[in-house]
Design brief:
- The chain has 276 residues and is an alpha/beta fold.
- The chain has a single domain, classed as Rossmann fold, CATH 3.40.50.150.
- The chain is 33% helix and 18% strand.
- The chain contains nine helices and eight strands.
- An eight-stranded mixed β-sheet has the order 1-4-3-2-5-6-8-7, sandwiched between helices.
- α1 crosses α4 and α6 runs antiparallel to α8.
- The longest helix has 13 residues.
């Protein structure tokens, strides 16, 4: 491991706004952010109390919690936190050296309504209780272009079933990607499982009434790895049962999306080159 990575890993261990594989957090996020806002140090997770559930429609004291999955450097989570200071935001990623960037910016600017969790996304359901998260953002994730890796796509039904366990009724999943393949795949999932589609755009920056949240740009978006010059956006709700037997049907549908030498193939080569 390089010296710079070691320095960043050491730094986030001292940051109150970064938690690495935290235990016993379901139901405690409101209490955690209260302590973070107060500047408490250290924040002892075992002393946090589980907050009783309240009806957010009638109790304005509850702060919505938005989760960004595969947050990378955390630009989106930080950007949303700046935009909505009365809400809380949590970025999740396995790469601690990337999380360091967003966490450092938040500390420097005293943005105390955003924090980060270092862990695997497969474990996400173990960190929240039911109805604890208001919205989920997935911004420029690895599209996992090979058909053999389709189950690793963050909008695959096996992940959506995890999100269902903690997403509030009426909450949305937002996908922002430069991958036409991932965009088509996600639309196929939505149609197959008859989920509610709130918004879709094949080129979000050409929309006249663009959601201001979509204007936040990340480091990876700036790289334009796919070379498509288009940013796709989907907002949908996981408001139906997701029968596992339909996963087999999905395999047949997505076989039609087999990647050839397209923007996505270029993107994959670009990602591999970056990893070298």
């Amino acid at each position: 491991m390089g010296q710079k990575k070691l320095i960043k890993f050491a730094a986030i261990k001292e940051y109150e706004n970064v938690l690495e594989y935290p235990q016993g957090m379901p139901g405690k996020w409101s209490a955690f952010f209260e302590q973070l806002a107060l500047g408490s140090s250290p924040i002892l997770l075992e002393n946090l109390t589980i907050q009783p559930k309240v009806d957010s429609a009638t109790d304005n004291r509850e702060k919505q919690l938005t989760l960004e999955l595969a947050c990378g450097r955390g630009e989106y989570a930080v950007g949303l936190a700046r935009m909505f200071p009365n809400q809380n935001f949590l970025g999740l990623d396995i790469k601690g050296n990337r999380i360091w960037k967003g966490a450092s910016i938040a500390n420097k600017e005293a943005i105390n309504n955003v924090a980060f969790v270092r862990t695997q996304i497969e474990q996400v359901a173990s960190y929240f209780t039911s109805d604890e998260v208001s919205d989920i953002w997935i911004t420029f994730p690895d599209p996992q272009l090979r058909l053999s890796k389709a189950k690793k796509r963050l909008t695959h039904p096996q992940f959506l079933r995890l999100y269902q366990t903690f997403l509030k009724p009426g909450g949305s999943v937002h996908l922002k990607t430069d991958s036409p393949n991932l965009y088509q795949f996600t639309m196929a999932v939505i149609n197959l499982f008859e989920l509610t589609l709130v918004k879709q755009s094949e080129d979000i920056y050409k929309e006249t009434n663009m959601d201001p949240r979509c204007a936040i740009k990340t480091y990876y978006e700036g790289l334009n790895i796919a070379g498509s010059n288009r940013i796709h956006y989907i907002e949908f709700k996981i408001d139906k049962v997701l029968p596992k037997q339909k996963d087999e049907m999905l395999k047949e549908i997505i076989a039609e999306f087999e990647v050839t030498e397209t923007h996505d193939a270029k993107r994959e080569r670009g990602m591999n080159k970056m990893a070298e």
